[in-house]
């Protein structure tokens, strides 16, 4: 183990680190938006969309990201759709994450006690008001733990981007190992790199969970 | 499409080869799920004990496997085992080891969660009729917590199977690796081969994982 080697490799790891953060952020944002739309389609039981969303969720949850990426990156050009690796990575992450986020939101909406909805109706709220004042605030608060777990999961999944040669953290480490054979040093930096992202994030998300949680009846 | 690329799948030995690769994938997953599941139940039971030190060590083990992405775990074991411990295992065995340890870590958390949610009066009643510690676990806690942990276990199993797609990275000859070989060997004849081969592998993974996800949903409802 030599500190000099680690020091020399840091600028390259820094680039990978930033790319990992950037792609994670875009992918997670897209996944949250897609997931929210999907869960709303399911919550309001919109006829055709509901079935499409159901099929999408099963398809995306039951296949690995790696094969989704391969299909998008290597398979789609065969039928004339050519995308850059970067775009493919983000699309793959959104395709995978969207279904996990949708399940998270659905879990939150389903977790609202029936008494809340009925009370809302009893005091004469319209469907729109019910959604705005009862379903959304309580549903979001309930879905935060699931969303937090998904965010961590998606950041870890970005390590798979290495297979379509996106120079993120894992890819940087593998490249350097291939070039200079300082395996231990580079693997250490790699693990520390993920730890720097994930440990603080997991602490912040746990704090947020406690902060946002609405008191339920009887608390 | 004049000559549809799907023929590539059925040409020569291509389909049996793909299924052969799939078997290697499944074997790694199966051994990891069984061995890791047993180890996970054992560790989960240990984590409900009062010993602070033991609990800390096991927690650390769990968090390590949670924080480090599986790709990185695979490389850590693949590179460091031979170098630092002089243990030269074939790639498939390294992968089995990693997945077993990972399964054990995640399963231990599920088992612990299920064990501590068995109602307290069950434990008290067990102790009242004079069961000792191991009898308490064997006759009361484990049977009752099994039902609680099954849905999460099903999800974990399907996650393990999906993650075996990473075997390719440490050059195990798994289904995706075989797929790549087929695509490359037929590049000239079937320029759209990638679309069909990866499409078929996509469907294969879906067919294996979907039953587990259905089962998990069904178990959750009961």
UniProtKB/TrEMBL annotation, chain A:
CDD domains: TM_PBP2. It is found in: Cell membrane. Belongs to the binding-protein-dependent transport system permease family. HisMQ subfamily. It comes from Agrilactobacillus composti DSM 18527 = JCM 14202. NCBIfam families: HEQRo_perm_3TM. Keywords: Amino-acid transport, Cell membrane, Membrane, Transmembrane, Transmembrane helix, Transport. GO terms for molecular function: transmembrane transporter activity. InterPro entries: AA_ABC_transptr_permease_3TM, ArtM/GltK/GlnP/TcyL/YhdX-like, MetI-like, MetI-like_sf. Signal peptide: none annotated. This is ABC superfamily ATP binding cassette transporter, membrane protein. The lineage of its organism: Bacteria, Bacillati, Bacillota, Bacilli, Lactobacillales. GO terms for biological process: amino acid transport.
